[in-house]
């Protein structure tokens, strides 16, 4: 179970990711994040943990090969990382470095565990007859808790939402991220190798 402190720290990391994207500006490709934690080497009895968020750039021009875009890419990645599926998928490999992901998941660091998967992307929000550019950071942690950070273009501050319950009306990316968490956080799973 993810501790309150870990949820708070993860939310802070996601906010940092969105703030960095805001500083860089609009029109950037989506970014996938793998968030893991491990016991802090200097902590007594290894009670404190260190968090790392690895940013994995996505090739947005290649994502267009997926019918439903980002949601389909995330679902394909979850399938590819499942122990019973082959990793070598040309469309997926053109979008993200699957070999790097498998290496990160196979890291032998004692006590290393998956904390969450997240994606930062730009979208269009349709309200009434108006279209608004919006940046979203969607995440799902190992407890299947959903995180969503949104910022409309021109807004000074993002809106943060953390949801402990499965939301059937959530963005398609959330269900794909949940599937990704499920396929990469099983205890004792054998990590596939890129070929």
The quaternary organization reads as single chain
Return the structural class: alpha+beta
Overall helicity = 25-40%
**Largest β-sheet summary:** 6 strands, antiparallel
**In angstroms, what is the radius of gyration?**
17 Å
Report the strand count.
6
Strand arrangement, major sheet: 2-1-3-4-5-6
Shape from CA axes?
A: globular
Compute the number of helices.
Answer: 6
Low-confidence stretches: 188-195
Termini gap: 34 Å
Instruction: Return the average pLDDT rounded to an integer.
Output: 84
Strand portion: 25-35%
What string, H for helix and E for strand, traces the elements in order? Answer: HEEHHHHEEEEH
Describe this structure as you would to a colleague.
- The chain is α+β, with helices and mostly antiparallel strands and 195 residues long.
- 33% of the residues lie in helices and 29% in strands.
- It contains 6 helices and 6 strands, in the order H-E-E-H-H-H-H-E-E-E-E-H.
- A 6-stranded antiparallel β-sheet has the order 2-1-3-4-5-6.
- Helix 3 (70-81) runs parallel beside helix 6 (172-184).
- The chain is globular.
Set out the fold topology.
Blueprint: H1 4-24, E1 31-39, E2 49-57, H2 60-63, H3 70-81, H4 90-95, H5 98-105, E3 113-127, E4 130-141, E5 146-152, E6 159-163, H6 172-184
Antiparallel strand pairs: 1-2, 1-3, 3-4, 4-5, 5-6
Helix pairs in contact: 3-6
């Amino acid at each position: 179970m993810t501790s309150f402190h870990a949820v708070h720290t993860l939310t802070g990391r996601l906010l940092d990711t969105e703030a960095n994207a805001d500083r860089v500006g609009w029109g950037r490709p989506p970014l996938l994040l793998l968030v893991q934690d491990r016991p802090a080497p200097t902590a007594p009895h290894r009670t404190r943990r260190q968090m790392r968020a690895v940013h994995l750039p996505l090739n947005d021009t290649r994502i267009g090969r997926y019918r439903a875009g980002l949601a389909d890419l995330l679902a394909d990645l979850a399938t590819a990382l499942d122990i019973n599926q082959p990793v070598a998928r040309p469309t997926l490999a053109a979008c993200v470095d699957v070999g790097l992901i498998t290496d990160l998941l196979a890291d032998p660091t004692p006590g290393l565990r998956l904390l969450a998967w997240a994606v930062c992307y730009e979208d269009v929000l349709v309200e009434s007859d108006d279209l608004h550019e919006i940046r979203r950071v969607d995440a799902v942690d190992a407890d299947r808790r959903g995180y969503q950070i949104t910022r409309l273009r021109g807004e000074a501050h993002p809106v943060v939402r953390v949801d402990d319950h499965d939301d059937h009306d959530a963005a398609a990316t959330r269900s794909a991220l949940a599937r990704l968490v499920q396929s990469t956080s099983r205890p004792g799973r054998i990590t596939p190798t890129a070929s």
